[in-house]
């Protein structure tokens, strides 16, 4: 009996006659789905137990006989999938191998695998045949991939990958219709596609072009303007150069927008069709990219390990292109790590994890769960590496652990940072040392007053990176020095590094750098320019607009209210009494001051009594200063003593200025106020 499996919708199985196979309960279906995600590879029994009983937070509380339950599920699945198999004969389909189980389905037996191969093959077919194959492949979708396991962590990466492939196939079908002169037929599908996925810039391009080719120039321009409005209002990002160029070409009635001759075969690398010009109005560089990626798709098998390593290289570049790119890179990074782990090759996994050496400047992670998952994967891979594995691979895993554990109180982060830096220096590897120094920087927040130490790291990063052409790390070094020089009230020095960072960012298309340099300039204005409070408030509000769509939730949430609170504190004003301000992660330290502004001293005192220590990050001193101000107001000597002790090492710094974003003035002034209050009689 030939069994077929479907995951492009709810997980299902069909026998050789096309009848649905009963898969019993949800755990049975989950085991089958988990084995299908593994794509013929072995899944250890222990991993099945973890995945089947993990809740959404990743916590595992399996029953006492979980392994026995897995065996029961497998036995039931075997009976359902191979009902005619004689007793005591080995299973042919759901097999036991080593420490676990594997589903040895044929490549054509699983709709998702068949879909992937068909879409890839269509790229090399003449347009009429390609359209037929894409239509057929898209008809296999019965709903979202793995629809009944949408909340399962183990299915997330594969669901995301298949969804992206489907969206790509819908757009390639539309592009093929345009190449065949079927613009009118492409419009309804593109309309529906964009209603569900409005951030797909290529789909907006195709819809506009289809409208133009059906004689609807006004509608074509309206579509591009609608795309711009959505991107700017919702993501804070301008349309890319492709959409901008297309709008200009439509207004100019550019000749290449008209349908050209149809190709019976894909264009050769030496021939560029009208369709190629529309797909890539950016000129020769864009055509080289398109032809190279098409060649890669044709020559490197879809399941090849080289694809994973190439993918991480792309993600690393994508992460510095802007907010959307950073978010996409972060989302796909964990999927790549998961895929590498499932191949069971620790050295490959180490390369996939360690290759994502994207410089990090902010000390609060954007996605705590993903950071924890990445750190756990790095630890598992470190433990699994063979003794003869290259030291550089170990160092990159250690640097990853140092980066992903930032802001926590775990001793593992500083230890990993020290080990990574030591290995990098012994190997005399500049790129590895830059990555390791980034990890070391992230672990220099265990107490206040460490701006000079971070300044030393920034100085080395700038010099090292400039010598070896590592632009993104050179920018990181300048940003670190902006922070450290600001903490030390050396704004002349910080200005030089802000100018250098902006110059590099402009030359190398690094738009996120401007987020930090604009905030720095508002900090400098508020600290040295004696602006009117309203002027500084407006400047901070303008800077906050740069955070919308920047792809850094660990930075943006609550930051503007905190900056405005710092202005009010320095001007002797109470906090805003508005209960509806979103303070984000800074709420515990703002709450006592808000309660005081509402004339609720007892509630403020109670809030101080349960106040946690601030996280060990760039705002450590600022948050202690807020706690100290509230404690002074209510006479909480315990909190005053703690704040004084914690802030004392930073006596020569500006409170919070080490963030490069805001300040509550000299730490020395806060210490003096606390000391006077503590010397007074009780």
Protein model, in words:
- The protein has 682 residues and is mainly alpha-helical.
- Among the domains are: 4-111, Orthogonal Bundle (Arc Repressor Mutant, subunit A); 181-259 and 276-292, Serine Threonine Protein Phosphatase 5, Tetratricopeptide repeat (Alpha Horseshoe); 304-405, no CATH class.
- Helix content is 63%, strand content 2%.
- It contains 31 helices and five strands.
- The chain has a three-stranded antiparallel beta sheet with strand order 3-5-4. A two-stranded antiparallel ribbon has the order 1-2.
- Strand 4 (94-97) and strand 5 form a beta hairpin.
- Helix 27 (587-597) packs antiparallel against helix 28.
- The radius of gyration is 29 Å and the shape is globular.
- It starts with a strand and ends with a helix.
- Mean pLDDT is 88; it is low at 261-282.
